[in-house]
UniProtKB/TrEMBL annotation:
The protein's Enzyme Commission number: 2.6.1.19, 2.6.1.22
NCBIfam families: GABAtrnsam (TIGR00700)
Family membership: Belongs to the class-III pyridoxal-phosphate-dependent aminotransferase family.
Taxonomic lineage: Bacteria, Pseudomonadati, Pseudomonadota, Betaproteobacteria, Burkholderiales
Coiled-coil stretches noted in the UniProt entry, renumbered to this chain: none
A GO molecular function held by the record: identical protein binding
Cofactor field: pyridoxal 5'-phosphate
Organism domain of life: Bacteria
BP-aspect Gene Ontology terms: gamma-aminobutyric acid metabolic process
Protein name: 4-aminobutyrate aminotransferase/(S)-3-amino-2-methylpropionate transaminase
Organism: Variovorax guangxiensis
Amino acid sequence: MQREPHLSNAALMTRRSAAVARGVGQAHEIFVSRAANAELWDVEGRRYIDFAGGIAVLNTGHCHPEITAAVKAQAELYSHTCFQVLAYEPYVELAERLNALAPGAFAKKSVFLSTGAEAVENAVKIARAHTRRPGVIAFTGGYHGRTMMTLGLTGKVAPYKVGFGPFPGEVFHALYPNALHGVSVDEALHSVELLFKNDIEPERVAAFILEPVQGEGGFYVAPNDFVESLRALADRHGILLIADEVQTGAGRTGTWFASEQWPVAPDLITTAKSMAGGFPISGVVGRAEVMDAPAPGGLGGTYAGSPIGCAAALAVLKVFDDEQLLARSRALGERLMAGLRRIAAGEPSIGDVRGLGAMVAIELFEEGDTGRPDAALTRKVVAEAARRGLILLSCGTYGNVIRVLVPLTASDLLVDEGLALLADSFAALR
């Protein structure tokens, strides 16, 4: 590819620094010129393999032709009416499709919004309206968004919460089970009971909210026995269970919703990111009687459930069916786990390889000591990989986790090339 005239990453970074608010971070000092499937090219013409996927937004890859065509066709009909003023059939069809996909043997309804944080905000509103209770219990390490309510729910201070408080009240945090870091399922459940003793009585709690696999928190998978016990605790006290699937949804974990793999069903599910292949839309799907608790006018938004987003999301569902991407997610996850374990065998700094479906991560420690998370090495590996042409993201409470969110549509050949670049990056830093 030809380099774009008069453009360079360095020059654009200079312009960005002068024009864009400092609080908007940037993982790599790279400016994209174009992208296709799991590859992208910067303004200087350099090619990269994308293992970040726009932070789990591109399960169907960059610029999938089916999705692009659906968006173009919709844009030629109408781009916006505001669903609460003049409705349109794609919104209804998308609700029907997601209601059918969501786990649980009960009637379901949906509402569509614009962002993941907006979905979580509305899930809390719906839960409070249904239960007529104020309290929400979230979990340490969880990430739920950047609005004030979702920051209150988020269980990670830096960089998300620094300087933005005070946050909304009646939000409490229990321990998330994490065997690698010494938190057992029993200890996590006991921490919920302690909240009931010390902070808020269960009769005032509207909902528990948790990610089936923590995203920013480090890709820790919620153990099934923990979820089952939490469901029982919720049922005992009339509390709702919310699965925040903004990152885990849309097939990333091998099922459309990760909570399909739970032994129990959540009452509400939030979804966004990959559900529309890069176009802004989010949603809340849940029990019909719960979803119907807010009065007309209590839910919605100017751009909520936009026609463009609905068309893109329906195209994503079609692509998943046509290309059997749920099976591909499971197979890709196995390939990634095997490849990362091969790298870990020769890298003592890698203390854990884990994941669910194709939502996979490695965690780095100083000399493999799980008591000493190695954020510095993590940053170096991510930077070295980018220098070699592989885009990665770090995450985790301690900043020592490297996550893989490569598009499910990536070929085995490309995935293996990316894994080889990761191995080379570790080797270069020895």
